[in-house]
Amino acid sequence: MKNIITKFAIFFLVTITSFSAFESEINSLFDEENLEYGNTLIIEQELKVETIDPVLLRDTYSKRAMNYIYAQLFRINKDNKIEPYLLSEYKYNDEMEMYCKLRDDIYFSNGDPITAQDVKISIEDYLAKGYMNTLYSSIKTIQVLSDKEFLILLNYPDNRLEVGLSNPLMSILKRVDNEIITSGSYVVEETYPNYIKLKRNEFYFEKDCFVENLEIKGELSSYQRVINSLNLHNYFSYDLYKEDIDTARKVGALKGKEVLSDTIYDIISLVFGKKKNYSLEERKALESLINRETTTIYPTEMFGKEASKLEKKYTKQEAINILKKNGIYGSKIKIMCLNTVHNRNFVQYVAHDLLESGMDVEVEIYNQEKFLKKLRSKEYDIALYNITVNSIYPLTSLEKAIIGEIVDYELEDALNPFFHLYEKEKEREKKENIINKIFYLTYSSRYFVPLAHRQTYILRNR
Fold first, then answer.
1. Most exposed residue of 100, 106, 248, 429, measured as fewest CB within 10 angstroms of its CB?
2. What does pTM read for this prediction?
Protein backbone atom coordinates (compact mmCIF):
# COMPACT_ATOMS: atom_id res chain seq x y z
CA MET A 1 0.00 0.00 0.00
CA LYS A 2 2.86 2.37 0.85
CA ASN A 3 4.31 1.93 -2.63
CA ILE A 4 0.98 2.73 -4.29
CA ILE A 5 0.53 5.87 -2.17
CA THR A 6 4.03 7.05 -3.12
CA LYS A 7 3.27 6.51 -6.82
CA PHE A 8 -0.02 8.36 -6.53
CA ALA A 9 1.67 11.29 -4.77
CA ILE A 10 4.10 11.64 -7.68
CA PHE A 11 1.25 11.25 -10.18
CA PHE A 12 -0.75 13.97 -8.42
CA LEU A 13 2.18 16.41 -8.41
CA VAL A 14 2.76 15.80 -12.12
CA THR A 15 -0.83 16.28 -13.20
CA ILE A 16 -2.36 18.74 -10.73
CA THR A 17 -1.57 21.73 -12.94
CA SER A 18 -3.20 20.16 -16.00
CA PHE A 19 -6.56 18.99 -14.72
CA SER A 20 -9.10 19.35 -11.96
CA ALA A 21 -10.04 15.84 -10.74
CA PHE A 22 -13.39 15.05 -9.22
CA GLU A 23 -13.34 13.43 -5.77
CA SER A 24 -14.92 10.26 -7.16
CA GLU A 25 -12.14 9.99 -9.76
CA ILE A 26 -9.44 10.27 -7.13
CA ASN A 27 -11.10 7.60 -5.00
CA SER A 28 -11.47 5.30 -7.99
CA LEU A 29 -7.71 5.31 -8.57
CA PHE A 30 -7.38 2.71 -5.80
CA ASP A 31 -10.25 0.45 -6.89
CA GLU A 32 -8.06 -2.22 -8.51
CA GLU A 33 -4.95 -1.92 -6.34
CA ASN A 34 -2.46 -4.79 -6.76
CA LEU A 35 -4.76 -6.85 -8.99
CA GLU A 36 -3.03 -9.45 -11.10
CA TYR A 37 -4.74 -11.55 -13.74
CA GLY A 38 -2.75 -14.70 -14.48
CA ASN A 39 -4.16 -15.68 -17.85
CA THR A 40 -6.51 -12.74 -18.43
CA LEU A 41 -5.68 -9.67 -20.47
CA ILE A 42 -7.44 -6.46 -19.47
CA ILE A 43 -8.12 -4.08 -22.36
CA GLU A 44 -9.43 -0.63 -21.46
CA GLN A 45 -10.69 1.99 -23.88
CA GLU A 46 -12.42 5.32 -23.45
CA LEU A 47 -15.98 4.08 -24.00
CA LYS A 48 -17.56 0.70 -23.40
CA VAL A 49 -18.62 -1.77 -26.08
CA GLU A 50 -22.17 -0.93 -27.16
CA THR A 51 -22.89 -3.88 -29.44
CA ILE A 52 -21.33 -7.08 -30.73
CA ASP A 53 -23.68 -7.21 -33.73
CA PRO A 54 -22.01 -5.89 -36.93
CA VAL A 55 -25.41 -4.90 -38.34
CA LEU A 56 -25.83 -2.46 -35.44
CA LEU A 57 -22.22 -1.25 -35.38
CA ARG A 58 -21.66 2.51 -35.53
CA ASP A 59 -18.92 3.27 -33.00
CA THR A 60 -15.14 2.83 -32.84
CA TYR A 61 -15.16 1.09 -29.47
CA SER A 62 -17.47 -1.78 -30.42
CA LYS A 63 -15.59 -2.17 -33.69
CA ARG A 64 -12.34 -2.61 -31.76
CA ALA A 65 -13.85 -5.47 -29.75
CA MET A 66 -15.15 -7.12 -32.91
CA ASN A 67 -11.58 -7.59 -34.10
CA TYR A 68 -11.28 -10.23 -31.36
CA ILE A 69 -14.73 -11.75 -31.82
CA TYR A 70 -15.04 -12.16 -35.59
CA ALA A 71 -12.99 -13.11 -38.62
CA GLN A 72 -13.35 -11.56 -42.08
CA LEU A 73 -12.44 -12.64 -45.60
CA PHE A 74 -9.37 -10.36 -45.56
CA ARG A 75 -7.32 -8.67 -42.86
CA ILE A 76 -4.75 -5.89 -42.47
CA ASN A 77 -1.49 -7.47 -41.30
CA LYS A 78 1.15 -6.02 -38.96
CA ASP A 79 2.77 -4.20 -41.89
CA ASN A 80 -0.58 -2.58 -42.78
CA LYS A 81 -0.82 -4.72 -45.92
CA ILE A 82 -4.01 -6.44 -47.01
CA GLU A 83 -3.95 -10.26 -47.07
CA PRO A 84 -6.48 -13.12 -47.27
CA TYR A 85 -7.75 -14.28 -43.87
CA LEU A 86 -10.61 -16.78 -44.14
CA LEU A 87 -9.73 -17.27 -47.81
CA SER A 88 -7.21 -19.77 -49.13
CA GLU A 89 -7.25 -18.07 -52.53
CA TYR A 90 -9.02 -15.39 -54.54
CA LYS A 91 -8.78 -13.74 -57.96
CA TYR A 92 -10.66 -11.27 -60.13
CA ASN A 93 -12.34 -12.88 -63.11
CA ASP A 94 -12.95 -9.35 -64.35
CA GLU A 95 -13.67 -5.92 -62.83
CA MET A 96 -17.15 -6.99 -61.82
CA GLU A 97 -16.49 -10.45 -60.37
CA MET A 98 -14.21 -11.82 -57.65
CA TYR A 99 -13.72 -15.56 -57.24
CA CYS A 100 -13.10 -16.69 -53.63
CA LYS A 101 -12.27 -20.01 -52.00
CA LEU A 102 -12.47 -20.52 -48.23
CA ARG A 103 -9.84 -22.28 -46.14
CA ASP A 104 -10.63 -25.86 -45.13
CA ASP A 105 -9.74 -25.39 -41.44
CA ILE A 106 -12.13 -22.59 -40.42
CA TYR A 107 -14.99 -23.08 -37.95
CA PHE A 108 -17.51 -21.08 -35.97
CA SER A 109 -17.19 -20.96 -32.20
CA ASN A 110 -19.72 -23.81 -31.88
CA GLY A 111 -17.59 -26.10 -34.08
CA ASP A 112 -19.64 -25.78 -37.28
CA PRO A 113 -17.57 -25.39 -40.48
CA ILE A 114 -17.73 -21.94 -42.10
CA THR A 115 -19.25 -22.35 -45.55
CA ALA A 116 -19.79 -20.18 -48.63
CA GLN A 117 -23.48 -20.02 -47.71
CA ASP A 118 -22.55 -18.54 -44.31
CA VAL A 119 -20.49 -15.89 -46.10
CA LYS A 120 -23.40 -15.09 -48.40
CA ILE A 121 -25.86 -14.74 -45.51
CA SER A 122 -23.45 -12.63 -43.40
CA ILE A 123 -22.61 -10.14 -46.14
CA GLU A 124 -26.08 -9.88 -47.67
CA ASP A 125 -27.62 -9.46 -44.22
CA TYR A 126 -25.36 -6.47 -43.65
CA LEU A 127 -26.12 -5.07 -47.11
CA ALA A 128 -29.82 -5.22 -46.28
CA LYS A 129 -29.82 -3.92 -42.68
CA GLY A 130 -26.42 -2.49 -41.67
CA TYR A 131 -26.13 1.08 -40.38
CA MET A 132 -23.37 1.90 -42.87
CA ASN A 133 -24.47 -0.41 -45.69
CA THR A 134 -24.14 2.33 -48.34
CA LEU A 135 -20.37 1.88 -48.02
CA TYR A 136 -20.82 -1.52 -49.68
CA SER A 137 -23.17 -0.51 -52.48
CA SER A 138 -20.62 -1.86 -54.98
CA ILE A 139 -21.52 -5.42 -53.89
CA LYS A 140 -24.48 -6.75 -55.84
CA THR A 141 -24.73 -10.27 -54.49
CA ILE A 142 -22.81 -13.38 -53.40
CA GLN A 143 -23.17 -16.37 -55.70
CA VAL A 144 -22.44 -19.72 -54.00
CA LEU A 145 -20.57 -22.24 -56.19
CA SER A 146 -19.90 -24.96 -53.59
CA ASP A 147 -19.45 -25.35 -49.82
CA LYS A 148 -16.12 -23.52 -50.04
CA GLU A 149 -16.34 -21.48 -53.26
CA PHE A 150 -18.30 -18.38 -54.15
CA LEU A 151 -18.32 -15.29 -56.38
CA ILE A 152 -18.68 -11.70 -55.25
CA LEU A 153 -20.62 -9.94 -58.02
CA LEU A 154 -20.35 -6.16 -58.20
CA ASN A 155 -22.59 -3.34 -59.37
CA TYR A 156 -19.52 -1.36 -60.43
CA PRO A 157 -15.71 -1.73 -60.14
CA ASP A 158 -14.47 -1.25 -56.55
CA ASN A 159 -10.73 -0.79 -56.03
CA ARG A 160 -11.07 -0.81 -52.25
CA LEU A 161 -13.05 -4.07 -52.09
CA GLU A 162 -10.38 -6.13 -50.30
CA VAL A 163 -9.86 -3.40 -47.69
CA GLY A 164 -13.63 -3.07 -47.25
CA LEU A 165 -13.95 -6.82 -46.72
CA SER A 166 -11.34 -6.66 -43.93
CA ASN A 167 -13.55 -4.32 -41.90
CA PRO A 168 -15.44 -5.77 -38.89
CA LEU A 169 -18.61 -4.57 -40.63
CA MET A 170 -18.04 -7.48 -43.01
CA SER A 171 -17.63 -10.06 -40.24
CA ILE A 172 -18.61 -13.66 -40.96
CA LEU A 173 -21.10 -15.02 -38.43
CA LYS A 174 -24.09 -17.29 -37.97
CA ARG A 175 -27.43 -16.48 -36.32
CA VAL A 176 -29.15 -19.35 -34.49
CA ASP A 177 -32.31 -18.80 -32.42
CA ASN A 178 -31.63 -15.03 -32.14
CA GLU A 179 -28.08 -15.67 -30.91
CA ILE A 180 -24.89 -14.85 -32.79
CA ILE A 181 -22.30 -17.59 -33.33
CA THR A 182 -18.92 -15.92 -33.81
CA SER A 183 -15.87 -16.78 -35.93
CA GLY A 184 -12.90 -14.97 -34.36
CA SER A 185 -10.14 -15.87 -31.93
CA TYR A 186 -12.37 -15.24 -28.89
CA VAL A 187 -15.98 -15.86 -27.98
CA VAL A 188 -18.19 -13.75 -25.72
CA GLU A 189 -18.55 -15.47 -22.36
CA GLU A 190 -20.45 -12.83 -20.37
CA THR A 191 -21.57 -9.22 -20.75
CA TYR A 192 -21.68 -6.68 -17.93
CA PRO A 193 -22.88 -3.05 -17.78
CA ASN A 194 -19.38 -1.66 -18.39
CA TYR A 195 -17.40 -4.50 -19.95
CA ILE A 196 -17.51 -7.78 -21.83
CA LYS A 197 -15.69 -10.96 -20.90
CA LEU A 198 -14.22 -13.14 -23.66
CA LYS A 199 -12.64 -16.57 -23.66
CA ARG A 200 -10.48 -18.27 -26.26
CA ASN A 201 -12.35 -19.88 -29.14
CA GLU A 202 -11.21 -23.52 -29.10
CA PHE A 203 -12.23 -23.94 -32.75
CA TYR A 204 -10.27 -20.93 -34.04
CA PHE A 205 -7.97 -21.95 -36.89
CA GLU A 206 -4.92 -19.93 -35.80
CA LYS A 207 -3.21 -20.99 -32.57
CA ASP A 208 -1.64 -17.67 -31.63
CA CYS A 209 -4.12 -16.52 -28.95
CA PHE A 210 -1.70 -15.24 -26.34
CA VAL A 211 -4.08 -15.43 -23.35
CA GLU A 212 -7.06 -17.57 -22.47
CA ASN A 213 -9.36 -14.71 -21.44
CA LEU A 214 -9.96 -11.07 -22.35
CA GLU A 215 -11.90 -8.36 -20.55
CA ILE A 216 -12.70 -5.28 -22.64
CA LYS A 217 -13.75 -2.37 -20.45
CA GLY A 218 -14.89 1.21 -20.88
CA GLU A 219 -13.05 3.71 -18.68
CA LEU A 220 -13.72 7.40 -19.36
CA SER A 221 -10.78 8.67 -17.31
CA SER A 222 -7.46 8.46 -19.14
CA TYR A 223 -5.77 9.17 -15.79
CA GLN A 224 -7.45 6.11 -14.30
CA ARG A 225 -6.05 4.09 -17.18
CA VAL A 226 -2.57 5.46 -16.54
CA ILE A 227 -2.84 4.39 -12.88
CA ASN A 228 -4.13 0.96 -13.93
CA SER A 229 -1.04 0.57 -16.08
CA LEU A 230 1.02 0.79 -12.86
CA ASN A 231 -0.97 -1.90 -11.09
CA LEU A 232 -1.94 -4.45 -13.75
CA HIS A 233 0.66 -6.60 -15.51
CA ASN A 234 -1.56 -8.01 -18.26
CA TYR A 235 -2.97 -4.72 -19.47
CA PHE A 236 -3.57 -2.71 -22.67
CA SER A 237 -4.94 0.84 -22.77
CA TYR A 238 -6.28 2.50 -25.91
CA ASP A 239 -7.39 6.12 -26.59
CA LEU A 240 -4.51 7.83 -24.82
CA TYR A 241 -3.10 11.19 -25.91
CA LYS A 242 0.53 12.31 -25.87
CA GLU A 243 -0.01 14.13 -22.57
CA ASP A 244 -1.22 10.86 -21.00
CA ILE A 245 1.88 9.03 -22.21
CA ASP A 246 4.09 11.87 -20.88
CA THR A 247 2.40 11.54 -17.49
CA ALA A 248 2.94 7.77 -17.52
CA ARG A 249 6.64 8.28 -18.27
CA LYS A 250 7.04 10.70 -15.38
CA VAL A 251 5.55 8.29 -12.87
CA GLY A 252 7.51 5.30 -14.18
CA ALA A 253 4.59 3.42 -15.72
CA LEU A 254 6.52 2.52 -18.88
CA LYS A 255 8.86 -0.01 -17.31
CA GLY A 256 8.05 -3.25 -19.10
CA LYS A 257 5.56 -1.40 -21.33
CA GLU A 258 5.59 -0.17 -24.89
CA VAL A 259 3.83 2.74 -26.58
CA LEU A 260 2.35 2.31 -30.05
CA SER A 261 0.91 4.99 -32.31
CA ASP A 262 -2.65 3.95 -33.10
CA THR A 263 -4.29 4.46 -36.50
CA ILE A 264 -7.07 6.38 -34.73
CA TYR A 265 -7.11 10.18 -34.67
CA ASP A 266 -9.55 12.30 -32.68
CA ILE A 267 -10.91 15.43 -34.33
CA ILE A 268 -12.12 17.34 -31.26
CA SER A 269 -15.05 19.26 -32.66
CA LEU A 270 -18.24 21.17 -32.02
CA VAL A 271 -21.35 19.62 -33.58
CA PHE A 272 -24.79 21.20 -33.67
CA GLY A 273 -28.08 19.73 -32.50
CA LYS A 274 -31.64 20.71 -33.36
CA LYS A 275 -32.56 22.52 -30.13
CA LYS A 276 -31.96 25.89 -31.83
CA ASN A 277 -31.39 24.89 -35.47
CA TYR A 278 -28.58 27.37 -36.00
CA SER A 279 -28.33 28.74 -39.52
CA LEU A 280 -25.07 28.42 -41.45
CA GLU A 281 -24.39 32.11 -40.83
CA GLU A 282 -24.90 31.65 -37.07
CA ARG A 283 -22.61 28.60 -36.98
CA LYS A 284 -19.88 30.53 -38.76
CA ALA A 285 -20.36 33.45 -36.36
CA LEU A 286 -20.03 31.18 -33.30
CA GLU A 287 -16.96 29.54 -34.83
CA SER A 288 -15.38 32.97 -35.35
CA LEU A 289 -15.50 33.64 -31.59
CA ILE A 290 -13.50 30.54 -30.67
CA ASN A 291 -9.71 30.23 -30.54
CA ARG A 292 -8.59 26.79 -31.65
CA GLU A 293 -5.37 24.82 -31.90
CA THR A 294 -5.64 23.44 -35.41
CA THR A 295 -5.63 25.21 -38.77
CA THR A 296 -6.72 22.22 -40.90
CA ILE A 297 -9.94 20.23 -41.11
CA TYR A 298 -8.33 16.83 -40.47
CA PRO A 299 -4.86 15.87 -39.20
CA THR A 300 -2.26 16.20 -41.95
CA GLU A 301 -0.48 13.13 -40.49
CA MET A 302 -3.36 10.92 -41.62
CA PHE A 303 -2.35 10.98 -45.29
CA GLY A 304 0.99 12.74 -45.21
CA LYS A 305 -0.22 15.71 -47.21
CA GLU A 306 -1.71 19.17 -46.76
CA ALA A 307 -5.36 19.14 -45.74
CA SER A 308 -7.95 21.83 -46.44
CA LYS A 309 -7.55 24.91 -44.30
CA LEU A 310 -10.11 26.01 -41.72
CA GLU A 311 -11.77 29.38 -42.17
CA LYS A 312 -12.68 32.16 -39.81
CA LYS A 313 -15.47 33.92 -41.67
CA TYR A 314 -16.00 36.96 -39.46
CA THR A 315 -14.11 39.25 -37.12
CA LYS A 316 -15.12 39.08 -33.47
CA GLN A 317 -17.28 42.19 -33.73
CA GLU A 318 -18.91 41.06 -36.99
CA ALA A 319 -19.76 37.71 -35.38
CA ILE A 320 -21.28 39.42 -32.31
CA ASN A 321 -23.36 41.71 -34.55
CA ILE A 322 -24.73 38.73 -36.51
CA LEU A 323 -25.63 36.86 -33.31
CA LYS A 324 -27.31 39.99 -31.91
CA LYS A 325 -29.29 40.53 -35.12
CA ASN A 326 -30.48 36.91 -35.09
CA GLY A 327 -31.41 36.87 -31.38
CA ILE A 328 -28.67 34.35 -30.40
CA TYR A 329 -26.47 36.74 -28.45
CA GLY A 330 -28.88 37.31 -25.57
CA SER A 331 -30.02 33.68 -25.19
CA LYS A 332 -28.29 30.97 -23.16
CA ILE A 333 -26.09 28.60 -25.14
CA LYS A 334 -25.77 25.10 -23.68
CA ILE A 335 -22.71 23.06 -24.60
CA MET A 336 -22.71 19.39 -23.62
CA CYS A 337 -19.68 17.15 -23.41
CA LEU A 338 -18.69 13.65 -22.37
CA ASN A 339 -17.39 13.26 -18.83
CA THR A 340 -13.71 12.75 -19.63
CA VAL A 341 -10.85 14.82 -18.24
CA HIS A 342 -9.75 15.96 -21.70
CA ASN A 343 -13.23 16.88 -22.89
CA ARG A 344 -14.01 18.78 -19.71
CA ASN A 345 -10.84 20.79 -20.24
CA PHE A 346 -11.64 21.50 -23.89
CA VAL A 347 -15.22 22.56 -23.19
CA GLN A 348 -13.91 25.01 -20.59
CA TYR A 349 -11.73 26.64 -23.26
CA VAL A 350 -14.71 26.97 -25.60
CA ALA A 351 -16.95 28.36 -22.84
CA HIS A 352 -14.22 30.81 -21.84
CA ASP A 353 -13.93 32.21 -25.39
CA LEU A 354 -17.70 32.64 -25.73
CA LEU A 355 -18.04 34.19 -22.27
CA GLU A 356 -15.27 36.67 -23.11
CA SER A 357 -17.36 37.74 -26.09
CA GLY A 358 -20.32 38.44 -23.81
CA MET A 359 -22.27 35.22 -24.53
CA ASP A 360 -24.35 33.44 -21.87
CA VAL A 361 -22.94 29.89 -21.72
CA GLU A 362 -23.80 26.81 -19.67
CA VAL A 363 -21.77 23.58 -19.78
CA GLU A 364 -23.57 20.24 -19.37
CA ILE A 365 -21.46 17.15 -18.58
CA TYR A 366 -22.94 13.68 -19.16
CA ASN A 367 -21.97 10.04 -18.77
CA GLN A 368 -21.73 7.82 -21.84
CA GLU A 369 -25.35 6.65 -21.95
CA LYS A 370 -26.94 10.10 -21.59
CA PHE A 371 -24.44 11.78 -23.88
CA LEU A 372 -24.82 9.31 -26.77
CA LYS A 373 -28.62 9.27 -26.42
CA LYS A 374 -28.74 13.06 -26.78
CA LEU A 375 -26.12 13.10 -29.54
CA ARG A 376 -27.95 10.58 -31.72
CA SER A 377 -31.40 12.06 -31.14
CA LYS A 378 -29.94 15.55 -31.78
CA GLU A 379 -31.76 16.74 -28.65
CA TYR A 380 -29.06 19.22 -27.69
CA ASP A 381 -27.88 22.72 -28.48
CA ILE A 382 -24.13 22.31 -29.14
CA ALA A 383 -21.94 19.30 -28.30
CA LEU A 384 -18.19 18.98 -27.93
CA TYR A 385 -17.36 15.59 -29.36
CA ASN A 386 -14.35 13.58 -30.53
CA ILE A 387 -14.96 12.48 -34.10
CA THR A 388 -12.73 9.42 -34.42
CA VAL A 389 -11.11 8.78 -37.79
CA ASN A 390 -9.15 5.64 -38.68
CA SER A 391 -6.40 6.30 -41.24
CA ILE A 392 -6.76 2.71 -42.56
CA TYR A 393 -10.55 2.99 -43.02
CA PRO A 394 -11.08 6.75 -43.66
CA LEU A 395 -14.25 6.25 -45.69
CA THR A 396 -15.85 4.08 -43.01
CA SER A 397 -14.86 6.65 -40.40
CA LEU A 398 -16.56 9.44 -42.34
CA GLU A 399 -19.70 7.38 -42.81
CA LYS A 400 -19.69 6.51 -39.10
CA ALA A 401 -19.41 10.20 -38.21
CA ILE A 402 -22.30 11.16 -40.46
CA ILE A 403 -24.62 8.32 -39.37
CA GLY A 404 -23.53 7.81 -35.77
CA GLU A 405 -22.42 11.26 -34.63
CA ILE A 406 -23.42 14.13 -36.91
CA VAL A 407 -26.57 12.13 -37.73
CA ASP A 408 -27.56 13.64 -41.06
CA TYR A 409 -28.93 11.45 -43.85
CA GLU A 410 -29.22 14.36 -46.30
CA LEU A 411 -25.49 14.95 -45.92
CA GLU A 412 -24.86 11.26 -46.55
CA ASP A 413 -26.93 11.40 -49.75
CA ALA A 414 -24.99 14.47 -50.92
CA LEU A 415 -21.65 12.75 -50.31
CA ASN A 416 -22.53 9.35 -51.78
CA PRO A 417 -21.25 10.27 -55.28
CA PHE A 418 -17.86 11.06 -53.73
CA PHE A 419 -17.90 7.77 -51.81
CA HIS A 420 -18.44 5.96 -55.11
CA LEU A 421 -15.67 7.94 -56.78
CA TYR A 422 -13.32 6.87 -53.98
CA GLU A 423 -14.22 3.21 -54.47
CA LYS A 424 -13.50 3.38 -58.21
CA GLU A 425 -10.27 5.37 -57.98
CA LYS A 426 -6.96 3.46 -58.14
CA GLU A 427 -4.34 6.16 -57.61
CA ARG A 428 -3.50 6.91 -53.99
CA GLU A 429 -3.08 10.66 -54.47
CA LYS A 430 -6.44 11.00 -56.18
CA LYS A 431 -8.10 8.91 -53.44
CA GLU A 432 -6.63 11.27 -50.83
CA ASN A 433 -7.94 14.24 -52.79
CA ILE A 434 -11.44 12.73 -52.70
CA ILE A 435 -11.20 12.22 -48.91
CA ASN A 436 -10.03 15.81 -48.61
CA LYS A 437 -13.06 16.96 -50.64
CA ILE A 438 -15.49 14.97 -48.49
CA PHE A 439 -14.04 16.48 -45.32
CA TYR A 440 -14.19 19.98 -46.82
CA LEU A 441 -17.81 19.67 -47.98
CA THR A 442 -18.84 18.41 -44.52
CA TYR A 443 -17.02 21.28 -42.85
CA SER A 444 -18.07 23.99 -45.34
CA SER A 445 -21.68 23.50 -44.24
CA ARG A 446 -20.44 23.48 -40.63
CA TYR A 447 -21.81 20.06 -39.81
CA PHE A 448 -18.81 20.03 -37.53
CA VAL A 449 -16.27 22.65 -36.40
CA PRO A 450 -12.79 21.21 -35.65
CA LEU A 451 -11.01 22.64 -32.61
CA ALA A 452 -7.98 20.35 -32.22
CA HIS A 453 -6.49 17.09 -33.49
CA ARG A 454 -5.12 14.34 -31.32
CA GLN A 455 -3.15 11.27 -32.36
CA THR A 456 -4.14 8.39 -30.08
CA TYR A 457 -1.72 5.90 -28.56
CA ILE A 458 -1.78 2.39 -27.13
CA LEU A 459 0.04 1.62 -23.88
CA ARG A 460 0.58 -2.11 -23.45
CA ASN A 461 2.77 -4.82 -21.96
CA ARG A 462 5.83 -5.73 -23.98
1. 429
2. 0.82
Cβ pair 363, 335 in contact under 8 A? yes
What residue ranges of the chain have pLDDT lower than 50? 1-37
User: Any residues with CB less than 8 A from the CB of 241 and at least 6 apart, and which?
Assistant: 222, 266, 342, 454, 455, 456, 457
> pLDDT value at position 6?
38
pLDDT of residue 354: 96
Can you give the pLDDT at residue 384?
96
Q: Is residue 460 part of a domain?
A: no
Question: Residue 29 has what pLDDT?
Answer: 32
Q: What is the structure's pLDDT at 59?
A: 86
Measured between its terminal Cα atoms, the distance across the chain in Å is 25
Give phi and psi for 423, each to the nearest 5: -65, -35
Q: Which backbone phi and psi does 107 adopt, to 5 degrees?
A: -140, 155
> Residues 289, 385: one domain?
yes
Sign of CA dihedral 352, 354, 358, 359: negative
**Domain annotation covers residue 459:** no
**What is the per-residue pLDDT for 156?**
92
Residue 9, classified by CB atoms within 10 Å of its CB into exposed (0-12), middle (13-18) or buried (19+), is exposed
Domain CATH code at residue 175: 3.90.76.10
Report the distance separating Cα 359 and Cα 52, nearest Å: 43
Q: Determine the residue type at 49.
A: V
What pLDDT score was predicted for residue 305? 66
Sign, CA dihedral 9-15-21-26, equals negative
Asked if residues 73 and 183 have their Cβ atoms less than 8 Å apart, the reply is no
Handedness of CA 99, 104, 107, 113 (dihedral sign): positive
In a domain, 224, yes or no: yes
Query: Structural domain of residue 444, as residue ranges?
Result: 265-454
For residue 446, tell me if it sits in a domain: yes
Contact between 165 and 66 (Cβ < 8 Å): no
Q: How far apart are CA 153 and CA 138, in angstroms?
A: 9
Residues 146 and 217 in one domain: no
334 and 309 co-located in one domain: yes
Least Cα distance to 87 among 166, 174, 181, 200 occurs for 166
CA–CA gap between residue 397 and residue 386 (Å, rounded) = 12
CA distances (Å), 311 to each of 103, 112, 387, 442, in order?
Answer: 52, 56, 19, 13
- 308 and 448 co-located in one domain: yes
